[in-house]
Amino acid sequence: MQRPINVDLPHKLGRDEARRRIAGNIDGLAGHIPGGVAAVDSSWSGDTLNLVVHAMGQAVNAEIGVDEKVVHCKFELPGMLSLFAGPIEAFLRKKGTDLLLEDKRD
């Protein structure tokens, strides 16, 4: 059974800058996933980023919607990963802004 996690990350960047930062940070996302071996497939549809994160034999589908003042994150945790929904949600609330919206420009 899948379990959804919904997290809103407020920001003051505006839609275009938030989208640019998220796009720039997706490549590093796999490095934050426990287990050491993860792959992230991503595609944009307008201002919505669709992700599939493959790790530990599981696939997590995610949708990240970028608005002017908030980033809406929705993750569908499959089977056994749903047991860790609480800690995963807490991590996203605490570190999601840093992971997705940090400015990685040199």
The number of helical runs is: 2
What is the rounded distance between the termini? 43 Å
Residue stretches low in confidence (pLDDT < 50, at least 5 long) are none
Count of DSSP E strands?
Answer: 5
Please state the average pLDDT score.
Answer: 86
- Helix and strand pattern: EHEEEEH
Spatial strand sequence of the major β-sheet: 1-5-4-3-2
Bin the strand percentage.
Answer: 35-45%
* Coarse shape: globular
User: Helix/strand-derived class?
Assistant: alpha+beta
Written account of the structure:
The model has no long low-confidence stretch (mean pLDDT 86). Strands 1-5-4-3-2 form a five-stranded antiparallel sheet. With 106 residues, the protein is of the alpha+beta class. The protein is built from two helices and five strands. The longest helix has 17 residues, at 85-101. It has helices spanning 15-25, 85-101, and strands at 3-10, 38-45, 48-55, 58-66, 70-77. Helix content is 26%, strand content 39%.
Quickly describe the structure:
With 106 residues, this protein is α+β, with helices and mostly antiparallel strands. Helices cover 26% and strands 39% of the residues. The protein is built from two helices and five strands; from the N terminus they run βαββββα.
Q: Which key terms come to mind for this protein?
A:
106 residues, alpha+beta, five-stranded antiparallel sheet, globular
How does the SSE layout of this entry go?
Elements: E1 3-10, H1 15-25, E2 38-45, E3 48-55, E4 58-66, E5 70-77, H2 85-101
Antiparallel strand pairs: 1-5, 2-3, 3-4, 4-5
